[in-house]
Amino acid sequence: MIKFLRIVIVDDQPNIRKDLRLMLETMEGVVVVAEAVSVRNAAEVITATSPDLVFMDIDLGDGLCFDLLEQLQPLSFRVIFLTGYGEYAIRAIKCGALDYLLKPAALEEVRLAVSRAWDITPVSPEQWRLTRQQCLERSFVERIALPAVGHWHLLPLSEILYAEGTHGTVVHMAGGDHHKTIKSLADIEKMLPETEFIRVHQSYLVNLRHIKTYYKRGEIQLSCGICVPVSARRRESVEHFLRNEKVGI
Fold first, then answer.
1. Which of 91, 117, 137 is the C-terminal boundary of a domain?
2. pTM of the predicted model, to two decimals?
């Protein structure tokens, strides 16, 4: 059990490092043990200080943070990305179930990110490789990483039938597997492409590819035969979405 977070800030912009340090120094239970400005410098600093949490810029002067993560495998620390990148990078970070701050970050955003860091586990190789691939190649999202108790699920989007948030959050797969995650349904919705997944109910998020039949009484049948409800207040938006996608309702 971590009693306080030892933090390293990795960013090649002095003003970003200064502002972040000042914000972190106002918080209880955290201490900034070092700063770094490059991949090479950060590798040395992190190895020497063994931090619990690293705030890490994506694009450093002598390379990308992914080069640094490659050198430091297996990772023993948590990561919060600092980025000024566009939506494609943010989508990649979310799909890896990683945390990020869009620069310049406000105090409350930093405070919230630190509070989440107490509970998250260090980044797995699969998580950062997934993020790296999709961030660098700007590729279409193919998998997402979902945290569970003590492990991670890396799930192909094409095989997700639906996600359910009735008693905890469970993702149901085409092969019959069911994966519990500590993420909320709202968190998962933000990670998924809006053109492929649709929220049909407060407790249900479905994969458009697996919709077999839409019943106007307020129900959707999926390719596996299971039916999920469509709430009255979402019915109009679901029908509009399906018409635009030309799935034949």
1. 137
2. 0.58
**pLDDT tens track for 134-144:** 666 655 567 77
Element (H, E) at 48: helix 39-49
CA distance 196 to 208: 5
- State the Cα–Cα distance between residues 187 and 122, nearest whole angstrom: 19
Written as six digits, the tokens of 88 are: 């494609």
Q: Copy the structure tokens of residue 27.
A: 């918080």
Integer CA distances (angstroms), 219 to 170, 214, 223, in order:
19, 6, 13
Q: Write the pLDDT tens digit of every residue in 61-118.
A: 788 787 788 888 888 888 888 877 655 456 666 656 567 787 888 899 899 889 888 7
Structural domain of residue 20, as residue ranges?
A: 5-137
- Count of the separate structural domains present in the chain: 2
Tell me the C-alpha distance between 26 and 32, whole Å. Answer: 11
Structure-token match 């949490």, residue found: 53
